[in-house]
Amino acid sequence: MVRKNVRLDESSVKNGVMTAAYTLTDRDFNDIATMLPFAVNAMKKQVSAIVCRPEGGMLSGLQAARFIVRDKHGKALPPVDISPIDCTPQPAAQPQEGEDRPRRKAKG
Q1: For residue range 29-83, what is the model confidence (pLDDT) as tens digits?
Q2: CB-based contact 41:88 (threshold 8 Å)
């Protein structure tokens, strides 16, 4: 078990492609059907952190990665595929207008 409710079912690296399949042992995807698109996008962000280097590019030796998540009944979400393009470093957040300027004193 990776976590209390997450079981790693299989993992491999072949020809530069990492594959990992997990089961969420306490989830039924039918109960969260309307949230599945959001869940897949959130999962892509999380798994990118596993296979991408902070400075960009994938971990040494990897050309791609595929993550599969199943519910307690074996129903799978669409696979999450990570490629080198997904591993581009994100620019630092820019300050919002007014955040980087000193505040003016009120007249009075």
Answers
A1: 887 767 777 777 888 888 898 899 999 999 999 999 999 989 999 988 889 999 9
A2: no
Tokens representing 30 are 């039918």
Spatial contact of 26 and 8, defined as CB atoms under 8 Å apart: no
| Token digits of residue 74 | 């074996």
Q: How many Cα atoms sit within 13 Å of 54 on the Cβ side?
A: 1
Cβ neighbors of 40 (< 8 A, separation 6 or more) are: 77, 78, 80
Q: Which of 85, 84, 89 is nearest to 16 (CA)?
A: 84
Q: Token pair 């969420």 is at which residue? A: 24
